[in-house]
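Throughout our pipeline, every protein is held as a single compact record rather than as scattered files. Nothing more is needed to write down the fold, since each code stands for a local backbone conformation. The record that follows is passed on verbatim for readers who wish to inspect the format.
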Amino acid sequence: MDIESAFIDLKNKLRLVSSSIRLDSELLLMKSLNVSRAHLYTHKEDTLTEDQKNTLEQLCQRRMLNEPMAYILGKKEFWSREFEVSCATLIPRPESELLIEEVLNLTSETENKKILDLGTGSGVIAISIALERPNTTVIACDISKAALKVAKRNKEQYNIENISFQESNWFLEIQEKNFDIIISNPPYIKMKDHALSQLTFEPIEALISGNDGLDAIRHIALNAKSYLNIDGLLLLEHGKDQENEVNQILTSAEWEVIKCVRDLRGFPRLTVAK
């Protein structure tokens, strides 16, 4: 089988599961053959080895089972950079870039702010902020040892020194106080949400937060003040239908100047509180 035949075969198979058939086929071939996209089109007549055919078949089978391409490839682009992901971490979503945008709006390049990222996962948000604001000190924590291993490899990939990672169940192991900003993209999906049927490959503990999806946000809202400076800020990502509930939680916990920020599609996605 040559590259052109393999490409045609892949596209036919992926029609059943993919909305981006050509792109997925290209990426699976590139990974299987360890070649560039240009190579696929300039060496169409090259014959695949048995090892390459076996690898391609295995990757194709994973995609046919609806496994996300990010997990198959082991990487995902976020904030114009490529990051490692694994089944121990959520796949970064474009809407989470709003957290970074808001932190950048609230800080300047010269300020030496101290930032805490709760539930960092693969570390993409915290690392992106650390790269954009090199004078900041960023501490990022997660309860998952496996996720933190991925986050630390992502840190090493970009060779940055102003970020550190810590294993902690929310604030439990955080010894430092006096943060200027606390950010979090916590679990916020309801226990019985129908959306979970589309997320079967992602770590369930990073998705679900109680019956109404708000347990983690309640916990953070009640405890974050103890770790913030006076006038410190809390930034919480949440579901597009949770604006009012999150506002009520923060109001009950006596937060002030509560503001909801909308994403590029106009959905309320991020709440900032002082």
About this structure: The radius of gyration is 21 Å. The chain is about 40% helix and 20% strand. The mean pLDDT is 96. The chain has two domains: 3-66, 90-273.
